[in-house]
Amino acid sequence: MEELKELKESPITEEISGFKSTSKLKSYLGAIFLMAITAIGPGFLTQTTVFTQKLGPSFGFVILASIILDIGVQLNVWRIIVASGKRGQEIANLVLPGLGYVVTTLIVIGGLAFNIGNVAGAALGLNVLFGIPFKAGAIITAFIALSIFLFKQVGEIMDRFVRAFGIVRILLAIFVMIAATPPVGQAAVKSIFPDSIDMMSIITLVGGTVGGYITFAGAHRLIDAGIKGKNLVPEATKSSVTGILITGVMRVVLFLAALGVITKGYAIDPTNPAASVFQSAAGNIGYKIFGIVLWSAGTTSVIGCAYTSVSFMKSFSEKIDKFYSKIIIAFIVFSTIVFVIVGQPAKVLVIVGTINGFVLPITLTSILIGAHNKKIVGEYKHPIWMTIAGFIVVAITAYMSVHTALTQLF
Question: Of the four listed, 38, 321, 350, 410, which is most buried by Cβ atoms within 10 Å?
Answer without folding.
Answer: 38
